[in-house]
Amino acid sequence: KLLLHVTLIRKSRDFSHRSMIKLRFRVGRLVFLLMVLIGNELIAQTANTLPLQPQKLQYAQEVEKEALAKKDTLMLAEAYYLYAKIYVTAHDYLKGKNYFIQSLRIIEKKGDSYHLGRLYCRLADLEIKQTNMTEALKYGRLALAIFQRVDSKKGIMEAHQLIGSIYIALALQTPSLRDSVLYYCKIGEKMAYQLRDTISIANIDNI
Q1: Which residue from 152, 174, 193 is spatially nearest to 9, judged by alpha carbons?
Q2: Closest residue by Cα to residue 188 from 162, 169, 207, 149
Q3: What are phi and psi of 152, to 5 degrees?
Q4: Which of 9, 31, 114, 198 is 20 to 30 A from 191 (CA-CA)?
Q5: Can you spell out the DSSP letters for 104-144?
Q6: Distance, CA of 84 to CA of 123 (rounded, Å)
């Protein structure tokens, strides 16, 4: 599975020259890893779809059934979201995207929210898996704009990390975009420490 959230360098408050050198070195390592992961993903796409996970599928069906019985649109959106994740895991990206879109159409009627931004992140992730980086960047920017409007610090951090990973892929063909890689990854890294996000910090320390 393609690494969706990229975080870089050790903690540095002022991002000194030494820290920037470390960041550039780690970006280089991540470029190599991304090339390998994209290659593996393309190979996986040529294979047949995987079997659906029965327990997760049953749970999604139960949520959908309950949502329809209660006429609860938000619960229905969650059911579609669960279906989408199941199909993406099975490499059926078309069905996965269709379910994400159905969930999004319901959620967006309620206005901006963390959940709406999360859906755009998932759509970006899905485009990354298919190496559609321009489309992924579009969704990533939409997610970031929503997170900024609702002032979700966690969402803003996640979106910067996501967009940074997309720019890494784009920079393989357009080296001039490396500054964008550094910009988004640096902000994502800084916010991870500010929020004490242990998962993101662990990823940083392991790079």
Answers
A1: 193
A2: 162
A3: -95, 105
A4: 31
A5: HHHHGGG-S-HHHHHHHHHHHHHHHHTT-HHHHHHHHHHHH
A6: 10
Rounded Cα distance between 150 and 23, Å, is 30
Query: Within 13 Å, how many C-alpha atoms sit on residue 3's CB side?
Result: 19
Distance of alpha carbon 27 from its chain centroid, rounded? 18
State the average pLDDT for the chain: 83
Q: Is the pLDDT of residue 6 over 80?
A: no
pTM of the model: 0.76
**Can you tell me the distance from the alpha carbon of 106 to that of 76, in angstroms, rounded to the nearest whole number?**
8
**Would you place residue 34 in the very low, low, confident or very high pLDDT band (cuts 50, 70, 90)?**
low
The mean pLDDT value for 128-153 works out to 97
At residue 200, the pLDDT reads 77
